[in-house]
Amino acid sequence: MTAIVEKARGLDPVAKAKLEKLLAKSERRVGKKQRKAPGHLTPAQKLLVDALKVFKRGYWIQGEQDDGMGGVCSIGAIREAAWRQGGDLEQQFQDAARLLSDAIALRVSPGGPDHKLDVDFEHPHGAIANPLPFIADWNDAPGNSARRVLAAFRQAAGLID
Question: How far apart (Å, rounded) are the C-alpha atoms in residues 27 and 24?
Fold first, then answer.
């Protein structure tokens, strides 16, 4: 960054400050992408990344797992991603569901970005006892959106903080 700034000596101070700010922001983004690189993910996190791809190929729905036309709910996306991966489907699915339910709990708790969603949950000792009904209730909660669902998946996969 300093080499680029040094070459910008002829710029007026305002332009130079803008350039420094832009470069610093760019370096933070690159650093964040390196920290969140998919190669450093657990198998459950990789499954959640694959579930995000399921949403990308189709779309998010409420009220059912799969509408037969490309729409899937949160649980449906994880199930489809696990099926596509093969291997120990049930263990992969359960581990990913636990990660997602923990991310959701953080998002809907007081002060979280989705705290206005009306979702009841018990969170004893930092873990949801049975993640599937919790995920289903959250997925189908009035006011939930594809944007919120995708953000929760990204958070659970470790792609965002």
Answer: 5
Q: In this structure, are residues 142 and 114 in contact, taking their beta carbons and an 8 Å threshold?
A: no
Element (H, E) at 99: helix 89-108
Q: What percent of the chain is predicted at pLDDT more than 90?
A: 45
Give residue 10's pLDDT band: very low, low, confident or very high (50, 70, 90): low
Q: Higher model confidence: residue 112 or residue 14? A: 112
Q: Which residue, chain included where needed, has tokens 């350039």?
A: 19
Amino acid at the residue 71:
G
Q: What is the CA angle 131-135-138, rounded to 5?
A: 140
Amino acid, res. 44: A
3-state secondary structure of 66: strand
**CA distance to 128, 143, 144, per residue, from 118 (Å):** 17, 8, 9
pLDDT at 151 over 80: yes
| Cα 67 to Cα 55: distance, rounded to the nearest angstrom | 13
